Amino acid sequence: MAVARADVNASRYSGRMIVLAFSSVLERALEDGLVAAALVDRDGNTIALAGPISAEEAMPLAALAMYRLKSPDLSSRMFGGEVISVELEDRHVAVGVAKRQLFLVAIFDDANGASVERVRELRDEVGEMLVADTVDAGWTIARGQA
To answer: What is the pLDDT of the chain when averaged over all its residues?
Structure first.
């Protein structure tokens, strides 16, 4: 089993417990059949990783997948919930956007619908975590505990 890693760099997620939760979710996705997964913020900072993917390759993989499928409406489709999938050399890469905040980059063995569906589910799970974290952070700040 691959070990999930958290990269708490100069990001708005740095030092937050949600980063550990992201890593755990990505690791569980590997148990469900994904080869590797990463979360990258809009500034290109890698937030969490699981499997054989490095922090340095996560955002370039997302950018290459989006370039290969470039169209005038790609960003609106992705922000609207579409997960794109493309074969790059010997691996299949899917990219989705969770709550307009984080790119999910996933690598899987084959382009079957079940793998892409698992990436959609993972994107939705990360999105729910982002919403819950925002609510929790707001509650803590409102109570003067931040």
So the answer is: 82
